[in-house]
Amino acid sequence: MKQKKSASILRKFLLFNLAVFSILGLFTIIYLKAIQPNLIKKRTADHYVVISNTSDHLQRLNINFNEKEIRTFLLSARFLFQSLDRVQFYNIDGNLIGDTNILDLDQNVFTKSDIIIEESIDGQIKEQDNLRESISQRNENSIQQVIINEYKNEPLTISEEIQNNFFVSTLSKIKIDQIDIGYIVVTEEANDILNAVKERKDFIIRTVLAVALVILIFSLFLNKYILKPIGLLVEFSDAIRKKSNKSVDIKNFFVREDEIGKLTKSIDEMTKELQKRTNRAETFSNDLAHEIRNPLASLKSASELLDKTTEKMEGEKLLKIINHDVERIERLITDYSQMLKDEASLSREKMSKINLIEIINNVTEDFKQDLKNQNKNIDIEIKQKINTKNGYYILGIENRLEQVIANLLDNSISFSDNNHKIEIEIEETSSNLVMSIKDEGPGFSETSPEKIFKRFYSNRPKNFGKHSGLGLNIVKNIVELHKGTIAASNRLNKRGAQVEVLLPKFS
Fold first, then answer.
1. 484 vs 446, more confident
2. What is the pLDDT of residues 70-95, one digit of tens each?
3. CB atoms within 10 A of CB 124
4. Is residue 489 one of the residues assigned to a domain?
5. Residue 443 is part of a domain; what is its CATH number?
């Protein structure tokens, strides 16, 4: 189950990145397709300036648009074309009448002019000349075809790759006095445009590959150090839930100081607590069933006898037994239900700083009043071995500590007769507060008084039928929740028992 969950998260992560890559790829393609046209457009704008200036010069100098005068014009106005590879003039019929490529000019005047090296007969130079001638002828034929077949009176940009060289040409009509006299073509070798596009493509490819590699490494890391551990933790929790015998090893996660380590410890603690509660519930249910069995047996026996007896006194006696057993069962069920609620809510209640002596005084006053109302002569005395104006403070839940003191006092009263005294002593150590409740009852007959904190403890006085036998067990649970301890013993050199509660001080 967990592996499916882990794989699903990883798959979602990879699909998300794939979607992002697809979107970025789409925008990249659009961007790359727009680069070349934009660069060509910029180059064309420069050509329009040259064309406009050339047209102005032709009109100002009153040049006739023929081969002889155009050649003379090109020689005289060379400054107009120094930044260009080639400028061509065509008459209105599409015939070439002027070309900077065939002018007998200094090679520095035109960037890509003829290579004139008379004394050199090197084969490489000849090959280069032949290549240039081929390109020139091909370019010229292309321009002528455009003029004859495609030109529609608007300036036109032509881009083409010839012999691994990229050219951008701008074609426009020449007008004098609003009359079309011919065409001018500005051509520039623009391999830098292809290089710019290639550089951007290479950069994007390198970037994509680098990002993809990072994502791959991160995905492996994510899967190994996060998703798989989480998968094992889920598998572990699932095994606990199903009470499976399957062993899931999560020991290696405990040493981690990150969130996975904290999660592992939290799940382990939660699991142990749940197991503890489950075991307590099972044990308690068994104890409850056992405890109910005795009054049920007594109830059954008394009801059978009641059905057969004819004597009034005997019948009344049996009815008292029945009522006693019913009350006993009712208390057991009520106290059991309340105990389960208390255990469930105990861990959720918020602790605060409280004065222990104030709680003792409040609970004691209530019991004194109850004893007075019941005409019982049992004295309750509070003794403080150390007097302090600041009080005895602990971190705890006030109503729960009241429950502890009340249950302990109630237990001592159950074992006390008239004229007996119950003492509550409170003292402090370096780190703890110690509360002792002492009575003058019969004390403990067992060698191990700690048994009184077990559920349904059976060694009770005659009047203990008012109790379910859960009170002292509840007391123990509450004390342990407050990180304290509780112990029972017989009093030294004196008749009676004592219960000692130790709670951490709060400073």
1. 484
2. 888 888 887 778 778 788 898 888 88
3. 8
4. yes
5. 3.30.565.10
Burial of 425 (0-12, 13-18, 19+ CB in 10 A): middle
Could you give phi then psi for residue 412, rounded to 5 degrees? Answer: -65, -40
pLDDT of residue 455: 65
Average pLDDT, the chain: 76
Measured at the alpha carbon of residue 461, what is the angle toward residues 458 and 466, in degrees to the nearest 5? 85
In a domain, 271, yes or no: no
Q: Is position 338 within any domain? A: no
- Phi, psi angles (nearest 5°) of residue 346: -60, -45
Domain count, the chain: 2
- Could you list the residue range(s) of the whole structural domain that residue 504 is in? 350-507
List the one residue out of 289, 178, 305, 230 whose CA is nearest residue 2: 230
Say which CATH number the domain at 22 has. 3.30.450.20
- 257, containing H or E segment: none
Quick one: average pLDDT of 12-16? Answer: 77
Q: Could you say which of 197, 225, 249 is where a domain stops?
A: 197
Asked, for residue 288, whether it belongs to a domain, the answer is no
334-341 average pLDDT score:
70
For residues 78 and 170, give the distance between their C-alpha atoms in angstroms, rounded to a whole number: 18
**Exposed e or buried b for every residue in 482-507, given b needs 16+ CB within 10 A?**
bebebebeebeeeebbbbebbbeebe
pLDDT for residue 277 is more than 50: yes
